[in-house]
Task: inverse folding
């Protein structure tokens, strides 16, 4: 499975930035993690009754089969990136915010599978609400604000001690966000340029608010090469490929998104010099794994091991992983893309 490989590369990259970003700050262990994003971060929550129809099957095998040996509502056959981060820091796996009875003393997962950077009202206005997740980064920010208030943290001026207790030893991980915004608008009259501008603006505003609230250690993750995902490979013609065998136009889109996003992150670094803000380059980490796939034991780069229809990619949007018509092969760790649903 790809996640352990990518997280190792991301950790090495992030560590290098952390060691040079501010030499006066002594590295310290984190006692909490607050995670935001989409299904690359989402874990342990119930299958969504309001999101894409494919999400209804996350409570079925083969989800979770290789590590937990049962479904855990993670969109993976095992663990997610955030699980590996927690393990690295010797912390328990993060409970979802909506789990009211969970122990949240070591952090909280606010991520939502299928989540968008842009607010749901935008998609409603453009008649794009069929089979999409209504939660966005704005939703996650509202939940986080509720959580802060439950901890007595109103803002850094009114309740400085309470806010320091929340943030001082906490790692904030903002996972990749925006891929679903592009995906939900494919084939519509909404341009990619509009999505790019709005998604980056929402993500940047989100980061700025977190920093104003008191975030000190922030890891921001960019988009992967989305043209390498099975859905893109399935829907675009074979002659639309780049040098790593993926859909060129879609990869250019996500690369451009990341370039602009990184520039915005750099502005925030200057605006908040007392915070450590690290950009986790998911694009190059993912590309490195693709380019060296056989060294990592992968035999299938684009075909999913859990899907339906067989064929070159074993992909059919009407038969997502976990559905009655889907099938899965073993061992899944030989597949770069272990499972597939319609949205991320």
Result:
């Amino acid at each position: 499975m790809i996640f352990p490989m990518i997280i190792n590369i991301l950790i090495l990259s992030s560590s290098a930035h952390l060691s040079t970003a501010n030499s006066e700050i002594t590295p310290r262990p984190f006692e909490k993690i607050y995670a935001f994003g989409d299904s690359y971060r989402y874990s342990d929550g119930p299958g969504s009754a309001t999101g894409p129809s494919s999400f209804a099957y996350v409570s079925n095998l083969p989800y979770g089969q290789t590590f937990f040996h049962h479904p855990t509502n993670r969109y993976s056959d095992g663990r997610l990136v955030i699980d590996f981060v927690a393990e690295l820091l010797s912390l328990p796996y993060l409970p979802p915010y909506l789990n009211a009875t969970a122990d949240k003393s070591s952090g909280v997962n606010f991520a939502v599978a299928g989540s968008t950077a842009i607010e749901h009202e935008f998609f409603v206005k453009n008649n794009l609400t069929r089979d999409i997740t209504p939660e966005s980064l704005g939703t996650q920010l509202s939940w986080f604000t509720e959580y802060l208030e439950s901890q007595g943290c109103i803002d850094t001026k009114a309740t400085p001690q309470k806010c320091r207790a929340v943030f001082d030893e906490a790692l904030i991980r903002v996972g990749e966000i925006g891929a679903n915004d592009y995906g939900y608008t494919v084939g519509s009259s909404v341009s990619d340029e509009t999505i790019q501008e709005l998604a980056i603006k929402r993500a940047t505003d989100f980061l700025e608010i977190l920093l104003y609230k008191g975030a000190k250690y922030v890891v921001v993750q960019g988009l992967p090469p989305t043209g390498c995902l099975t859905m893109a490979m399935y829907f675009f013609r074979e002659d639309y490929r780049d040098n790593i065998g993926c859909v060129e136009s879609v990869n250019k889109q996500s690369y451009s998104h990341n370039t602009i996003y990184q520039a915005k992150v750099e502005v925030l670094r200057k605006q908040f010099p007392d915070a450590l803000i690290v950009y986790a380059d998911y694009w190059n980490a993912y590309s490195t794994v693709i380019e060296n796939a056989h060294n990592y034991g992968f035999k299938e780069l684009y075909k999913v091991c859990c899907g339906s229809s067989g064929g070159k990619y074993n992909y059919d949007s009407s038969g997502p992983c976990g559905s009655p018509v889907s099938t899965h092969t073993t061992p899944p760790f030989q597949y770069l893309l272990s499972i597939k649903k319609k949205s991320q």
About this structure: Confidence is low (pLDDT under 50) at residues 3-16, 18-23, 44-49. The beta strands are 32-36, 107-109, 170-174, 217-221, 276-280, 306-307, 327-328. The longest strand covers residues 32-36.
